[in-house]
Amino acid sequence: MRYVDPVFAGPTDPTVVRDGDRRLMYYTSRRANVPGLPGHSWVFGTPIGMAESPDGVTWSYAGDAVIDIPGEDLTFWAPEVVVHDGLGHMFLTVIPGIHTDWGHDGAIVHLTSTDLRTWGDPRPLRLATDRVIDACVLRLPDGTWRLWYNEETSGKNTYYADSPDLFTWTDHGRAIADQPGEGPNVFHWRDRYWMITDVWQGLAVYHSPDALTWTRQPGTILAADPRGHHADVVIDGGRAFVYYFTPTGDRTSEIRRAELVLADTGTLTTR
């Protein structure tokens, strides 16, 4: 599978959810093919693109998500979407302004939707600092929810917070801090919790019995050129598929899919 955004040619940070018989994919739509944008401004001012698929393999462009957040020149990154009791919840990185360099304040904002296209009622989360990006949300066995995110002032460590209802969150600080990374994604599969993070040399893999204590497996996955970045994992029929983006040029990118495999040694790999 290879998906390229037909408008800006720079899809990154995918997240995939089911909507009835179809799958919906949301992604950061970097403005990779827009000429004359100075510095890093092509990764700011970005909308959230959408694609749809009947099978998770063949994808068709479905326009942009409609994000109702007050303000001008807003940057939207790294959407995380979950559907619970018929309501869609998006946890979106929002950065004020369009910048030519990195290192600006960012918030994770919770929005809701009844149709999975139009998102409103924005509520910024109160987390560890004012420089946070890349949310991931998972429901735990007791019915509560846990959110992992990248806290940038700590050297890009992964932090976490808990919620009873997806609206009220309590921050608990660091989850992992063995090396810088971003885009944490957590899923439960084969009797373990797994976390993957983008460490820019492929994806680091961690496992845990309780989603609290994490053990790093040696090396990285999807490390060969072109490398995998900022991924989402979908469990489908007992199989696990990782959706990730990879560069195709100086600015352009595409989204790909690989299947995860658990070796007899307990090591997670791809095929």
The total count of helices amounts to 0
Rg value: 17 Å
Report the strand count.
22
Assign the CATH topology. Answer: Tachylectin-2, Chain A
Average pLDDT number: 97
| CATH C-level label | Mainly Beta
- Return the string of H and E elements: EEEEEEEEEEEEEEEEEEEEEE
Kindly, what is the distance between the CA atoms of the first and last residues, rounded to a whole number of angstroms?
Answer: 13 Å
Structural class: mainly beta
Task: Please describe the biggest sheet, giving its number of strands, its sense, and whether it closes into a barrel.
Answer: 5 strands, antiparallel
Total domains:
1
What percent of residues are in strands? over 45%
Give unreliable regions as ranges.
none
By CATH, the architecture is named 5 Propeller
Keywords: Glycosidase, Hydrolase
Pfam family, one: Glyco_hydro_43
Protein name: Family 43 glycosylhydrolase
Family: Belongs to the glycosyl hydrolase 43 family.
